[in-house]
Amino acid sequence: MKNNILLKDKSLLISGFKKLTIKLPPEIREAVKARNWSLLDQNAFRLCNNDGLIFNELKNFHNFEEIEHLINIRNYIDDEDGIWHDDGSRYLAFSLSLNFAPDSIAGGELFLRKKSNKNEIVTLSPLAFGEMIIFLTGQYNFEHKVGMVTKGERISLAGWCS
Fold first, then answer.
1. pLDDT digits over 7-19, tens only?
2. Which residues have CB under 8 Å from 147's CB, separation 6+?
3. What angle do CA 95, 98, 102 make, to 5 degrees?
4. CATH code of 47's domain
5. What pTM value is reported for the model?
6. How many folded domains does the chain comprise?
């Protein structure tokens, strides 16, 4: 696969993902507590921008030019199962947990699998604040989806590297 020269951590090819813990600045915690999504997005932009905390961390795993991101809020009131998808032409994706009490969440799992083996699914329960899953995309024959939240609220910063 031509993208393998961009992949710095070849161990990702086996499982498709890694779990990391990121020491987030206090303003991220404060924005989530205040439910100030605009301020959270501004801070997330800085973290994902060139030379930002998340950008620099992900550069250890793969070469890329930019990160796109969004704040993902899913709750039991109006959630539904996601669909399997591979994030198209992007190389690497991530889900950074902004949950203070992940044990209060039912559902909301991140499911990962190789496209070539649809019966072997990795299930990752919602994580604690500052924990991040980085994972490979369709460029490496992987796809993912998020399950329906049936209790509580799942807050994450999702992103894609291209």
1. 999 999 999 999 9
2. 81, 82, 107, 108, 109, 110, 111
3. 95
4. 2.60.120.620
5. 0.95
6. 1
